[in-house]
Design goal:
The protein has 4 helices and 8 strands, in the order βαββαβββαββα.
Length: 143
């Protein structure tokens, strides 16, 4: 199990090299900063070091046990991230594909709404903080 919070870009292929060896299934998800119709140039994420890693580790450990994963990696960036760059990655490995898929979705739902990051959209019109979204909260109900 690896949980990483960093400012630097990461190499998805390098992170997956050897990941899940011996497992029956590996599922990955990579979030990319999207443009939203020309309104955004970058996303800026703030966090409290220590607190963020602890919260993400708890969520990841829960997924590891709940879905009987053989391995899991979660990487999340902070700082200013331009449109088109990877912001985060989840990789899950399990004996069976359904567990790997479910664990990846579980992690995404929880990271999206519970990981302690504060997001600011930066665009040609200025900057604005991103508010919590009801749809993200609704997604948690299935778990």
């Amino acid at each position: 199990m690896r949980v990483i919070v960093q400012a630097e870009p990461f190499d998805m292929a390098a992170e997956l090299h050897g990941f899940g060896a011996g497992s029956g299934a590996v599922v990955t998800f990579t979030g990319i900063v999207r443009d939203d119709g020309g309104r955004m140039q970058a996303l800026e994420l703030e966090h409290y070091p220590g607190m963020t890693e602890r919260a993400m580790t708890e969520i990841t450990r829960d997924a590891l046990h709940r879905f009987a994963l053989t391995d899991v990696t979660v990487i999340h960036r902070h700082g200013r991230i331009p449109v088109g760059e990877a912001i985060m990655m989840v990789a899950t490995a399990a004996r069976h594909r359904q567990a790997a898929f479910d664990a990846a979705e579980f992690l995404m739902d929880y990271l999206k709404s519970r990981a302690p990051f504060w997001k600011k959209e930066i665009g040609p019109e200025g900057e604005s903080w991103v508010a919590a979204r009801q749809a993200d909260e609704e997604a948690l109900k299935r778990w």
